[in-house]
Amino acid sequence: MLGIKNITIVFSFIFLMTPFTSQAVNIAQGWGRVNMQGAIIDTACAIAVESRDQTIDLGIVPVADIIRDGHGRSKPFTIELVNCDLERDGNKFPDWKNFQVTFDGDAEGALFGVQGDASGVALQINESGGHAAIPGSPLPLRNITPGAMQLNYTMKLVANNHALKAGSYFSSIRFKLDYF
Q1: Is 68 helix (H, G, I), strand (E, B) or coil?
Q2: Cα 121 to Cα 112: distance, rounded to the nearest angstrom
Q3: What is the helix (H) or strand (E) element at residue 28, kind and residue range?
Q4: Residue 19 φ/ψ region, left for φ over 0, alpha for ψ in the -120 to 50 degree band, beta for the rest
Q5: Which of 163, 154, 173 has the alpha carbon at shortest distance from 106?
Q6: C-alpha count within 13 angstroms, C-beta hemisphere, residue 20
Q7: What values do phi and psi take at 124, rounded to 5?
Q8: Rounded CA separation 62/6 (Å)
Q9: Which residue ranges does the record assign to the Fimbrial-type adhesion domain (predicted)?
Q10: DSSP summary character for residue 148
């Protein structure tokens, strides 16, 4: 008789726990999590839609060009700013006067690193005024012109003093504008 009571108690315990476990799983199935982030910005200009996400194809660069010249051909690109307005909303802050552009990406010293099969090369960006962009460092201050502005740059493949190897390459470089 003692053996039968023990079996009954064990079965009762398992049977009582099953509905609670099932119910806990059903409750968890109806819950989730959403993470959000964002920014509220105040800018003097908007970036034209076609300038926000650009793909710049540097084409095929012969290894001989890199060996002989230390770089490939320069490829121009433009960032267009539109709806530039010097006046700020309200009188709490002074009007806009200047801005700075910062390019950022995989840094390889003062150059932008590349990924892929190629090696011994990196990317260099120069603004039309001759200043070279250094990853994460802002370019010199420029004046804001009301209306629309075109910011002109060139990009080229340059030797980076590592072993040169032919192959495909790619890089992602971001830019941001700070207004003052």
Answers
A1: helix
A2: 9
A3: helix 2-29
A4: alpha
A5: 173
A6: 5
A7: -125, 135
A8: 84
A9: 35-168
A10: E
Of 16 and 155, more confident:
155
* Token couple for 35: 């993470």
| Chain CA centroid to CA 155, Å | 18
Residue-wise pLDDT tens digits, 133-178: 999 999 999 999 999 999 999 999 999 989 999 999 999 999 999 9
CA distances from 137 to 4, 31, 67, 120 (A): 80, 44, 28, 23
Q: Determine the distance from the C-alpha atom of residue 72 to the mean position of all C-alpha atoms in its chain, rounded to a whole number.
A: 25
- For β-strands 75-84 and 147-159, DSSP reports them as antiparallel
What span, in angstroms and rounded, lies between the C-alpha atoms of 81 and 146?
Answer: 10
If pLDDT is split at 50, 70 and 90, which confidence band does 27 have?
low
Structure tokens at 77: 């690109």
- Only one residue has tokens 């002989």, namely 68
| pTM, two decimal places | 0.75
CB atoms within 10 A of CB 156: 17
Closest CA to 45 of 130, 151, 135: 151
- Residues 153, 157, 161, CA angle at the centre, nearest 5°? 130
Distance of CA 129 to the CA centre of its chain: 25
The encoded tokens of residue 177 equal: 């504008």
CB atoms inside a 10 Å sphere around CB 164: 14
